Structure formats: structure tokens, C-alpha cells
Amino acid sequence: MRKFFLITWLIVLSLLAALAWITWQGFITQPLSKQSESIVLVVPKGANAKQIANLLHQQGFLAKPQLFVWYLRYQEKQHLLKAGEFAIQPNFTVDELIDALIKGEAVRYEATIIAGHTFAQTLQQLHALPKLKKELSLEDIKGLQKAFTLSGEIADKYPYANLEGRFLPETYYFHAGDSDKTILLRAQQALNDVLQAAWEKRQADLPLKSPQEALVLASIVEKETGFAPERAEIAGVFVNRLRKKMRLQTDPTVIYGIGQDYDGNIRKKDLNAATAYNTYQMSGLPPTPIANPSREAIQAVLQPNQTKALYFVAKGGGQHIFSETLEAHNRAVQKYILNK
């Protein structure tokens, strides 16, 4: 009888050992989850292996969290896990999961600065990104200028004028918890690099005395057209007008000059208003950029088309008709604007 019980007991132990082996092999070789979508795992600072395992288990990505803890301890890696946001794929094995948590390759998010936006629009857009920390405030204009090492008098009507055009429109990547200031500092450096490189290769004899003047004109070109093939031609028109001491007479500067009172329409009184930005009433360039210019607009201003055109008018679809004489321009205005 004793021999029978001993044999039975050995069989049971063997079966349990086999079951444990199968479970263990399944744990380390099978995918983490049967779900089809990846998840973003947020690991708080100071979280231990058990807490991380439970977070995964709660999201359906780790059926046996205690095995994960034991496995980490067996490998002596429980102290190597990093905090942050991690993209976890459902087909990860447990070893791939551990690698991801140790390497700390956190999820990256996109922040796009749009060409033609003013500084206020740019910061408001960044503040709409939930993963980006808000370090800057539109209410603290002196603080904004200090943050970007900019100076200049702050005018009541144009409080952000010294901040306009300073940030290169691009898509920037960031991790959760990075700040708006971090993104804008990178964009500021990117713009400085692009502007300086373009300035050093500029056409000879341009009527632009400094990179700052090129930036101002590029911001105008950016606002005048969203049709990329026309940027260099429009830049050529403005360069011709500057050479001839003609006023630029460009509507985007009038709109910036109107400021917060702009309601979507430009009236005769607006064209006659003597603002700091109204190029219908002033000669040369306005005092600051009026928006963020793209690298293509900067390039267009410093490599403008060699054209005789002095005028242009919108013909629809974002495109323009260019004219060399006022008479031809007036005919184009009559055709494309007044007869609509």
C-alpha cells in the first residue's frame, strides 16, 4: 500500500512539475496579450516591478503579474526599469517588454508650428497639446521676451511684435512632460540656423540690409501666398518695389496693423490708417515680422525670381496674376476682383 501511495505521489509531483514548466515556458515565449492594439503604459517615477506588473495586468497585457516580478528578480533587473510613457505592443514577449522598460524609449508626440501663424496663435496651439507642460503665458510678455533672449519696447497694440517670426514652422517631437518653452527654444534655434545659412548664400545686391530685414519680408511673403511655386515670384515683386522705393502695399501688413480689431475685412479707412505696419502708408519694411515664415519663404526672399513684375493680384485658388505696369494690374484687378 505504501508503495502505491509513493508512486501516486511521484506521479502527481511529476504532473505538477510538468504543468509548472508549461506555464513558465508559455509565460516567457507567448505574446503579452491577445489584443490587437498597442497601449501606452505610463510608469510613474519610483514605481516598483510589482506596481508596473499590476499596471500592465489592469490593461490586459500581463495575465500573471507575479511571474513577471519573479522573472525580473531572477534576472536581477528589477531595479533597472525606467519611468515614463512606453508604447507596449501586444505581440511583445516578456523579454521584449523588459527591454523596452529598461531602454526607456518613451513615446514621442508631435508639435507642429504652422507657417503664417502669429506668436499668440503658435503658443495657443501648443497649449492645446495635453502632453505638453505649459511653462509660458501670453499674459507675461516680459517673461516671454526673457525666455527667448529677445528685447524691445512692448507696444500696447502689438504686445507680441518682438516675438513674431522667431520660430521655424516644422513638426517637433517631444515626450510627455516636456514644456512649451523647450519646443519653442528648439524652433528658435532652427530658424536662426536656416536664416543664417540662407543669408550667407543670398543673391548679390538685394535691398535687404540684414537677416532681420529678410525675416520681415519672408513673413510677408508667407502671408501673401500658400501656393509654393509663387513664393519666389512674389518675393521678386517686393524686391523690385524696394529697389524702386515703392511702397509694398501688401494687405497682410494692414491686417497686422489693425490688430485685435480686425474683423475679416479691410476697408478704405484701414488702408489710410497710419499704423506702424501699414505698408500702404509707409515706405520700406514694417518694424518686425508679422508671422512665422517657413524655410521656403526665407529661401524665396533671399533667392527671389528675376522678374520685372511690380504688382500682383489674387486670381483664386491661392494663385496670382503678376503685372509689370499699373495699367495691366488694374485690368487684372477689374477681371479677378471687381467683376466677381
Automatic annotation (TrEMBL):
Gene3D superfamilies: Classic Zinc Finger, Endolytic murein transglycosylase. It is an enzyme of class 4 (lyase). Keywords: Cell inner membrane, Cell membrane, Cell wall biogenesis/degradation, Lyase, Membrane, Transmembrane, Transmembrane helix. The record marks E224 as: Important for catalytic activity. It catalyses: a peptidoglycan chain = a peptidoglycan chain with N-acetyl-1,6-anhydromuramyl-[peptide] at the reducing end + a peptidoglycan chain with N-acetylglucosamine at the non-reducing end. Its EC number is 4.2.2.29. Functions as a peptidoglycan terminase that cleaves nascent peptidoglycan strands endolytically to terminate their elongation. This is Endolytic murein transglycosylase.
